[in-house]
Amino acid sequence: MDEPKGTEKDPGHGGAPPLPFRAAVDALRGARLRPQVEVDPAPAPKRLAPYAYALEAAVVDGEEDLADGRLVLLHDPAGHDGWRGTFRLVTLVRAELEPEMAADPLLPEVCWSWLTGALSARGLTYGEPSGTVTRASSHYFGGLSERPAASQIEIRASWTPREGVAGAPDAGAHLVAWCDLLAQVAGLPPAAPGDASVVTLPQRRGPQSR
């Protein structure tokens, strides 16, 4: 079996990727996602684990990107003490905010709860979650003084997905949950019935530079 695009492996590990990793990658590639989320393979990191697969995604509304992110699947067949497993998912999610929303002191806690809530809503079991939520504001001066102030939220996180009977996690379901997070950060309405109580960010002021 040829290695899927977006896969990197440690040069010290020859041969084809192990079956659990290949099954997890196939699940990522076969996941059914909401149409507003565009996903493409991306270069994977080479030194975080013996095997890795990466995706980039953007929530698109016409020609405007409302949010973007990156999801990396890592696999170490020997296991990893920090992961407490053989797989790890690592993510970065970014979106532009209205300055008023960025000033909310509870915003970091709310954004983190969106990640854990997205996983729980899909019935996923995971362990060892960790990450950061960062707010950044830009103010323009001189020749750029006519630009309005801009604020951005950034979520960096990782977690260990529960492995199934064959040793592979349900990576496709984790990707769907991650896309739920992306859509929520972008301010889109919930995709599934019954999620009307979810609070979303207001629509962005304009196109986000990437």
Molecular structure report:
The protein is an alpha+beta fold and 210 residues long. The protein has one domain (15-186). Helix content is 22%, strand content 36%. It has helices spanning 19-30, 99-102, 107-121, 171-186; strands spanning 7-9, 37-42, 51-61, 64-80, 85-97, 126-138, 150-161. α1 packs across α4 and α3 (107-121) runs antiparallel to α4.
Question: In percent, how helical is the residue content?
Answer: 10-25%
List the total number of helices: 4
Which runs of at least 5 residues are low in confidence (pLDDT < 50)? 1-5, 193-210
Distance between the termini: 35 Å
Question: How many discrete domains?
Answer: 1
Largest beta-sheet details: 7 strands, antiparallel
* N-to-C series of helices and strands: EHEEEEHHEEH
Describe the global form. Answer: elongated
Structural class: alpha+beta
Strand content: 35-45%
The overall average pLDDT, rounded, is: 82
Counting DSSP E segments of at least 2 residues, the number of strands comes to 7
What is Rg? 18 Å
What is shown here, in short?
The chain is an alpha+beta fold.
Detail the topology: elements first, then pairings.
Blueprint: E1 7-9, H1 19-30, E2 37-42, E3 51-61, E4 64-80, E5 85-97, H2 99-102, H3 107-121, E6 126-138, E7 150-161, H4 171-186
Antiparallel strand pairs: 1-3, 2-3, 3-4, 4-5, 5-7, 6-7
Helix pairs in contact: 1-4, 3-4
